[in-house]
Amino acid sequence: MMEIVVCIKQVPDTTEVKIDPVTNTLIRQGVPSIVNPFDKNALEAALQLRTQYGGKVTVLSMGPMQTKEALKECLAMGADEAILMSDRAFGGSDTLATSNALAAGIQKMGKVDIIICGKQAIDGDTAQVGPEIAEHLDLTQVTYVAKIESIDNATIRVQREHEEGYEVIDAQMPVLLTVVKSINEPRTPTVKGLMKANRKEIPVWTVDDIVVKASAIGLKGSPTQVRRIFTPERRVQGELIQADTGREAAGILVQRLVGLKII
Amino acid sequence: MAVEVKKEECIGCSACVSVCPFGAIVMEEDKAVITDACTVCGACVDTCPVGAITLTVEKKEIAMNKEDYKGVWVYIEQFEGAARNVGYELLNEGRKLADGVKQELAAIIIGDDVDHLTKEAIARGADKVYLVEGPEFKHFSTDAYTITLTDLINTYKPAVILMGATTDGRDLGPRVACRVTTGLTADCTNLGIDEATGLVAWTRPAFGGNIMATILCPDHRPQMGTIRPNVFKKAEPNFSLTGEVIKVASKVKETDIRTRLIDIIKVSTVACNLEEAEIIVSGGRGMGKPENFALIEELASVLGGAVGSSRAAVDAGWMPAIQQVGQTGKTVGPTVYFACGISGAIQHVAGMSSSDIVIAINKDPEANIFKLANYGIVGDVLEVIPALIEEIKKVKAAQ
Question: The whole model's pTM is what?
Fold first, then answer.
């Protein structure tokens, strides 16, 4: 049976984040926590593979206990199992420490054929945890996957989004894929799915449940350190071109661009 | 390292709660409590009016001898034998970093039959070029390139590596950083040297561009980062400069490569290579209907630019997803960005806010896009764009 693992992250909905104009800091109050949108694409891809080839889909996340809500949503979408890794010892992890912990969690599961992650999380936008998990587990990796074409004889054929277009790639399994938004349209949980998800137990693994060096996780396992956080300077007020007609405005704009040697 | 709240001194004002960019502080029984989400950024420490929050630094035990690592490296990414611009942009910026710490600047070139790129790398500032060639590098593969870059790092021990935040750069970077166990800062938009420590200060947007974070890699080497294309300018090549080319033999075996490139489906290159484009013309829902994107394409074509799109236009099926600019699409930083009929939702802004000049054309004077536009025209795109095309053609004809 094909074992598929989907790694997800619970993130603040960054499109709802606003900046306090007085203190120039993030206003977090009332910002909902959501499943990282790309991770929903990853889960949808896994569910479609299960339909086509059979298998089991397990969703894995690391985070505080409230992450269970996000995992519940994944169960409601149709995942078979969900596991949360939660421990104070994981706190303050950068991408390397996070990937160490998640890789240890995946190893605990035993045989895995495909791991799917979203291309990046919308709060950090690093796109690093996926490839780093692949490295820890010594797996083939293909990032920015826009289409899964077929699985045949332990080889998966995918299309990878690239600057020039799409690369068609054959990858040996087991494999880790990161997926882009255009790969699919994630399904909405059904009422039945929600009820099922509510009844489902979500096991919580702590650092004692996995095999990992204490120096490889949390703050100690994080080579990078945040030095400073600041709000970007907003642009200086630009010029709103005043003209009676669109044609006239276009003429003025072109003059400006000529002045800047852009044309 | 840890951030701690001295409970007896906390007055329960909750000032720290709102400044924490990670939402890692909660109030329990009128006292601030630091949760697992803390990344020890220290933003709360300066905010506390009574000094009840402290940041303690404990020394990490690291096996790495940092003194052994010297020099700044720039990875020159090539596609089908042509270097991507971002490599040359980073050589120019890497030169400043290398001069700042008085170390040498080296270019890393991996590919098949790419010897011709060494001259230009030297002309653009590299003191040294490490060149690894072989048919196994004809196309990028995670496995072959990771083995090779890791081998170079372990042999020659650089202090800093700069890579372009391209599709392949963001595939290769984390894999290599993980293999050599070091920190990688992704998608940077600014670089500097931290005065207190002499470390590279990597600055990058987070939370959809709502905040900026400056990141250090204090105890691990090399310090690695991927940097967005178009953030830095290329230097003019100076072919009188000289440098050393060091050819390194490939250690990749055929069985090491677990992927095989079957085909490349090229989408019209000018239209879709948004990451490297100097001018981008993007259209949104305000274009009215898909047919009107012909105007966007024509304006891009007369300017020699690429065509982008907002999420709304992609979701409506008017434009392919590969051309979407924004948080869930591509991140771009051209010299000039035209936003036509785009309202400027925060998720779109996150993908284009590092553009040098933003030009907004929209009929709604209240549209958010005008807040970040250097030049704005309130008007109908269907009237303004054709006039723009005509005016630009006139200017070009006269030049």
Answer: 0.89
